[in-house]
Amino acid sequence: FGSQLQNFRARSGRVRSDLVDPFRFLIN
């Protein structure tokens, strides 16, 4: 799931990364 999230983050761009970052931290 981690790599899937990274892919999503790379596709969405920096704007989305702000929203995904907190989730990635919780998942890790």
Give an overview of the whole structure:
With 28 residues, this protein is mainly alpha-helical. It has one domain (1-28). The protein is built from two helices and no strands. 0% of the residues are buried.
Cα-based radius of gyration, to the nearest Å? 8 Å
Shape: flat
Give the count of helical stretches.
2
Ends apart, CA distance between termini: 10 Å
Summarize the structure.
This protein has 28 residues and is mainly alpha-helical.
Task: Give the SSE layout.
Layout: H1 2-12, H2 14-27
Relevant terms:
28 residues; mainly alpha; 2 helices; 89% helix; flat
